[in-house]
Design a protein that fits this description.
- It is a single chain.
- The protein is α/β, with parallel strands linked by helices.
- The protein folds into 2 domains: 176 residues, 3-Layer(aba) Sandwich (Rossmann fold), CATH 3.40.50; 209 residues, N-(1-d-carboxylethyl)-l-norvaline Dehydrogenase, domain 2.
- Helices cover 50% and strands 10% of the residues.
- The chain is built from 17 helices and 8 strands.
- It has an 8-stranded mixed β-sheet.
- Helix 10 crosses helix 11 and helix 16 crosses helix 17.
- It is globular.
- The mean pLDDT is 96.
- Bound molecules: nicotinamide-adenine-dinucleotide.
Length: 393
């Protein structure tokens, strides 16, 4: 199968590698020759490493590299059955590219965007045949992250959704289908992981190392929120939060933190700048957490309750199915458990109580409990029990 990828940066290069590993012929286009060269060299390095580690045969590594054609002319994508765009996150530039691309393709070809924050409907509207347009959202690094969100726009034809889903699944990815709403599934449901951790810190309830320690050691998350923000980059993470906040018409649930804004403004971006919430310079010893189990449990209970509330609300608004919401968080951001399964484990009523306690204390709508959780608690329902699953979702 011929696949087109537009943009040879972080995501485009990763997506090209995934498709070529699945034996597709990939035509990778970028407006910058230097980006194409960099992408090619980086793939060669990755392949060498995988061969050295014994994860790939020399032959397969060669094949993966030969399957990718680095092209400087958009016309070379003419025979692609699916084109995935992964250029700069700018709606006008993306739309211009789609308008140049569409007349080159066969009428059956699918056009997709890897956008994280733009509405798929708005991008589809730039096409002559918007029914062939869809969102296909990979996670970074694309070859390692198993999850891909598939986002049909209101214009997308059902057959295109099925075909796009089948192609991505055939590349060994776990696909989930998300409604075309800000943040799709992962970037919406994950917000409290950062936002509530920042709030706990801002209020002086615990310091940064203690919050990270609690989330890892008691919550069983792979990384603490501050370690993860430093890893993602405070500039990038702050922008996602702010974008989601604005896109939800300033819903206080998603309100960004001044702390993170200041970190970003100061250039304390995290690992990439050598300093973020932690100091990454050589020889600097990481500050120790206060290993207070009771405090740690309070921190975890609060952040997890807020995450569960977000997941429940995503289900309430039919952003995705229960199964897909749980798969998205375990496969897209490596959470230790699906949030809805976690809610079942804690007990829906206990989740509602935790949220109501926060709401009573703060009197802020940020802490309002999802109506779905409240209804389920009243009816004694669970998310994943066959006999008492909520009938309307
Ligand atoms: N980086 C992430 O973690 C991540 C994760 C998921 C989705 N995304 C989305 O993927 C897209 C790409 O992000 P990225 O991080 O790979 O960006 P990047 O900056 O690493 O790469 C973008 C590439 O697009 C090229 N480009 C820019 N304008 C172009 C044009 N008009 N025609 C052709 N090529 C052009 C640039 O030369 C560059 O090589 C964005 O929409 C972003 O929101 C990013």
């Amino acid at each position: 199968m011929n696949i087109g990828v537009i943009g040879a940066g972080t995501m485009g290069s990763g997506i090209a590698q995934v498709a070529s590993t699945a034996d597709c012929q990939v035509y990778l286009y970028d407006s910058q020759v230097a980006a194409l060269e960099r992408s090619k060299q980086q793939l060669a390095k990755i392949m060498d490493r995988l061969v050295t580690k014994g994860r790939l045969t020399e032959e397969k590594a060669q094949q993966i590299q030969q399957n990718i054609h680095y092209v400087q002319d958009l016309n070379e994508l003419a025979n692609a059955e699916l084109v995935i765009e992964a250029i700069i996150e700018n709606p006008d530039i993306k739309k211009q590219v789609f308008q140049r691309l569409e007349p080159l393709l066969s009428t059956e070809a699918i056009i997709a965007s890897n956008t994280s924050s733009l509405s798929i409907a708005s991008l589809a509207a730039a096409c002559q045949r918007p029914e062939r347009f869809i969102g296909i959202h990979f996670f970074n690094p694309a070859p390692l992250m198993k999850l891909v969100e598939i986002i049909p726009a209101v214009q997308t034809a059902n057959a295109i959704l099925d075909k796009a889903n089948d192609i991505i699944a055939s590349w060994g990815k776990q696909t989930v289908i998300a409604k075309d709403t800000p943040g799709f599934i992962v970037n919406r449901v994950a917000r409290p992981f950062y936002g509530e951790a920042l709030r706990i810190y801002d209020e002086g309830i615990a310091d940064i190392p203690t919050i990270d320690w609690a989330m890892k050691n008691i919550g069983q998350f792979r990384m603490g929120p501050f370690e993860l923000m430093d890893f993602i980059g405070n500039d990038v993470n702050y922008t996602v939060t702010e974008t989601v906040f604005k896109a939800f018409y300033y819903d206080p649930r998603y309100r960004p933190s001044f702390t993170q804004k200041r970190m970003s403004e100061a250039g304390y971006l995290g690992r990439k700048s050598g300093r973020g919430y932690y100091d990454y310079q050589e020889g600097v010893i990481k500050p120790s957490p206060t290993e207070d189990t009771a405090l740690g449990q309070t921190i975890v209970d609060r952040i997890v309750a807020m995450l569960i509330n977000e997941a429940a609300d995503a289900l309430h608004f039919r952003i995705a199915t229960r199964e897909d919401i749980d798969a998205a968080m375990t496969k897209g951001v490596n959470y230790p458990k699906g949030l809805l399964s976690w809610a079942d484990e804690i007990g829906i009523e206990a989740c509602v109580q935790r949220l109501d306690q926060l709401f009573d204390h703060y009197r802020e709508s940020r802490y309002r409990c999802s109506p779905l959780l409240r209804k389920m608690a009243a009816n004694g329902e669970r998310f994943f029990s066959s006999e008492k699953a909520p009938h309307h979702v």
